[in-house]
């Protein structure tokens, strides 16, 4: 019997306000997954990046805050980090292990940075990783468009290597069905 958690990685004001690929759809999909997880008693864990003083995502600034459309409930954990991976020098792994969570549903911002590092760290830590389609995004950079970054990481790098990239409806159904197991 699997025990799931939904990880919401770096969905922060300073990143969501960027010119993200498929921004509106991705935010709506993440909101829907959060609501579904909450109804099914699935742990929702937020990850928040701190770039350091003077940077866009500096601790305590408006840009650093969790995006207002997906604000955590008071009882939901927020993991603060200073590195790309949500696992590196944080208490995320111990929190997951205490709750016997073995499967992570990972969503969030900066596909090629913090999402990538977190997905690979989760895999290396022997968690099963599920990435719902259209629940992560990035902005264009000097080399690739946000659309190409999304496609490259989701379907070339992660899928069937570090994670299962699964249609959103299938993940929603999986979350709802897991309620029977809890």
TrEMBL record:
Q: Which InterPro entries match?
A: Isochorismatase-like_dom, Isochorismatase-like_hydrls, Isochorismatase-like_sf
Signal peptide coordinates: none
State the UniProt keywords alphabetically: Hydrolase
* A GO term, aspect molecular function: hydrolase activity
Residue ranges annotated for the Isochorismatase-like domain, each copy included: 5-140
Under SUPFAM superfamilies, the record lists: Isochorismatase-like hydrolases
Task: Note the PANTHER family from the entry.
Answer: ISOCHORISMATASE (PTHR43540:SF14), PEROXYUREIDOACRYLATE/UREIDOACRYLATE AMIDOHYDROLASE-RELATED (PTHR43540)
**Family in the record:** Belongs to the isochorismatase family.
Q: What is this protein called?
A: Nicotinamidase-related amidase
User: To which species is this protein native?
Assistant: Paraliobacillus ryukyuensis
């Amino acid at each position: 019997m699997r025990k799931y958690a939904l990880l919401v990685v770096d969905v922060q004001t300073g990143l969501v306000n960027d010119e993200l690929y498929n921004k509106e759809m991705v935010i709506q999909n993440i909101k829907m997954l959060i609501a579904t997880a909450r109804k099914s008693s699935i742990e929702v864990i937020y990850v928040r990046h701190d770039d350091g003083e003077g940077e866009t995502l500096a601790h305590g600034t408006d840009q650093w805050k969790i995006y207002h459309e997906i604000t955590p409930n008071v009882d939901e954990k927020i993991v603060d980090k200073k590195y790309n991976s949500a696992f590196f020098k944080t208490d995320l792994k111990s929190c997951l292990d205490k709750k016997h969570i073995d499967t992570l549903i990972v969503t969030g911002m900066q596909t090629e940075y913090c999402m990538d590092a977190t997905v690979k760290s989760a895999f290396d830590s022997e968690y099963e990783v599920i990435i719902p389609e259209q629940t992560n995004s990035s902005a264009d950079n000097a080399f690739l468009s946000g659309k190409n970054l999304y496609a490259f990481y989701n379907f070339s790098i992660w899928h069937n290597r570090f994670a299962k990239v699964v249609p959103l409806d299938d993940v929603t159904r999986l979350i709802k069905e897991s309620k029977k197991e809890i």
